[in-house]
Amino acid sequence: MEGCITGTGKFLKAYKPSIKVVGVCNATNDPIPGPRSQTVFDSCLFPWRDVVDSVESITSVDAYRLSMLLSRSGFVAGPSSGMALKGLFNWLQKARDENQLDRYRQSETGDINCVFICCDLPYQYLNEYFARLGEEEFRPMLNEELLEYDTNGYDVSWELDKEKAAALLTRASITSSPTSAPASSERTISNADRDIMILDLRSAEDYSSYHIPHSVSTPLQNLTAATPPPLADLQKTGVLIEQWAALKSKFDDHDTMLEDGIAVKRNRPITALCYNGQTSKIASAILRARGLEAYSVKDGIQALRND
Predict the structure, then answer these.
(1) Rounded distance between C-alpha atoms, residue 76 and residue 61, angstroms
(2) Distance of alpha carbon 160 from alpha carbon 19, whole angstroms
(3) What pLDDT shows up at residue 250?
(4) Nearest to 283 by CA among 253, 243, 234
(5) Can you tell me the distance from the alpha carbon of 81 to that of 256, in angstroms, rounded to the nearest whole number?
(6) C-alpha closest to that of 271 among 133, 168, 183
(7) Which residue would you say has higher pLDDT here, 34 or 3?
(8) Residue 108 CB coordination number (10 Å)
(9) First vs last Cα of the chain: how many Å apart?
(10) CB count, 10 Å around CB of 153?
(11) Strand 22-26 and strand 210-211: pairing?
(12) CA 263 – CA 256 distance, rounded (Å)
């Protein structure tokens, strides 16, 4: 950082000598990732003193707080960036207290132009925000119960649009068959002859009304066409929690899966289907966590039926 501020400051002052360069450093025994303390600066061989007009010492609490404020305002930045902003604020406040601000105003507009450098991101320091800042700094967690549920990751590549789903499923037409073959017959064909397994999580009644040929009917408890999408409103977590627990139980119990005709093979892709694509999205994440190649279909069975 000493080299950065020395080179940048020297270049800018060559064009406009009136520019003020403010350096920032860690408060004593209060480290911030990246920047250094005044003691380290003093031992540095870079000629930063020829360029820097003022040095502000910043606490880690202020650095993390201003970083969070930046991120909440749309400028995603880490603690070093918050430190730079706090240094600028401190310098401006001192200039105001000394009645010196007017000397920095632009003659044409009356504005005081200020620039600070955002040189890091916050992601790798997330735990530090909670360690450094008090609980009152954070907005309340409205769905804390989800820390114990829906614990598997998602990936957009696991969610197929209708074209990709049709290609993967080979036959994407809907069978309208109130008198179709029994589910057990469908399961036998699915398990024996197809390279991909299609799990239909809808109710048995809706499955018998229309379904992908050779898909396996494995109704999820309490799931109907009237069930609200589980991921539509994460402040209302009841449906999500219920479905995640039911799916986890279903896929955790190997005997139950066999009873449902789900003879899972590691080298066989699985596509889960539901009414709106959200329940099957949860199912694919659970199956992926078990090492299976699983997919869901965006917007569910309706996306394929509309074709």
Answers:
(1) 17
(2) 55
(3) 87
(4) 243
(5) 53
(6) 168
(7) 34
(8) 6
(9) 59
(10) 9
(11) unpaired
(12) 10
Instruction: Extract long-range pairs of 260-264: CB within 8 Å, 24+ residues apart.
Output: 260/187, 260/216, 260/217, 260/218, 261/183, 261/184, 261/187, 261/188, 261/190, 261/191, 261/216, 261/218, 262/197, 262/199, 262/216, 262/218, 263/191, 264/197, 264/292
- 3-state class percentages of the chain: helix first, strand second, coil last, to nearest 5: 45, 10, 45
Query: Is the pTM here over 0.85, yes or no?
Result: no
The phi and psi torsions of 69 (rounded to 5 degrees) equal -65, -40
Spatial CA neighbour of 211 closest among 242, 246, 187, 244: 187
pLDDT tens, residue by residue, 219-272: 999 999 999 999 998 888 999 999 999 999 888 865 555 555 565 556 678 899
Cα dist from 80 to 63, 75, 83, 89, 97, whole Å:
7, 13, 5, 14, 26
- Token pair, residue 190, equals 């699915």
The pLDDT, as a whole number, for residue 219 is 94
pLDDT of 191 strictly over 50: no
CB 60 within 8 A of CB 132: yes
Report the pLDDT value the prediction gives residue 137, as an integer from 0 to 100: 93
The pLDDT, as a whole number, for residue 77 is 96
Q: In the predicted model, is pLDDT for residue 171 greater than 80? A: no
Q: Does pLDDT of 60 surpass 50?
A: yes
Cβ neighbours for 282, distance < 8 A, ≥ 6 positions apart: 150, 230, 231, 240, 243, 244, 247
**What is the C-alpha to C-alpha distance for residues 117 and 180, in angstroms, rounded to an integer?**
67
Q: Is residue 118 a contact partner of residue 84, using CB atoms and an 8 Å limit?
A: yes
